[in-house]
Specification:
By secondary structure, this protein is of the alpha/beta class. It is 33% helix and 18% strand. The chain has a 5-stranded parallel β-sheet with strand order 1-5-4-2-3. β2, α2 and β3 form a beta-alpha-beta unit. The relative contact order is 0.27.
């Protein structure tokens, strides 16, 4: 069972300075249109080869456009033993719908 977080709760956690790593699993073309602040970019297709780069000692909030690809990415990471993955319900669409900040990606 994948744990999910909604945009309001995530925004609150980020505002409170919680140590959360945002991982954008969308395509490079999608990411070029903007991402959540301070997110890193690891496209869903390369999660299997780059999973080792992800920390296991802090919460990972995985997101995509609508929440479907990130849900599957969370399932995969959980199968690899990650216990700290959370899916952003509704993806960046829900985040933007609340009027929250979208900016350039941090790298990836």
């Amino acid at each position: 069972m994948v744990t999910e977080i909604d945009s309001e709760t995530l925004k609150s956690r980020l505002s409170n300075g919680e140590d959360v790593l945002l991982v954008d699993v969308r395509t490079p073309a999608e990411v070029a249109q903007g991402a959540l602040p301070n997110a890193i970019h690891i496209p869903m297709a390369v999660i299997p080869v780059r999973a080792a780069e992800l920390p296991r000692d802090r919460d990972l909030v995985i997101y995509c456009r609508s929440g479907a690809r990130s849900y599957h990415s969370c399932q995969f990471l959980m199968q690899q033993g990650f216990e700290n993955v959370v899916n952003l319900r509704g993806g960046i669409i829900a985040w933007a719908r609340h009027g929250y900040e979208i900016g350039p990606i941090n790298g990836g």
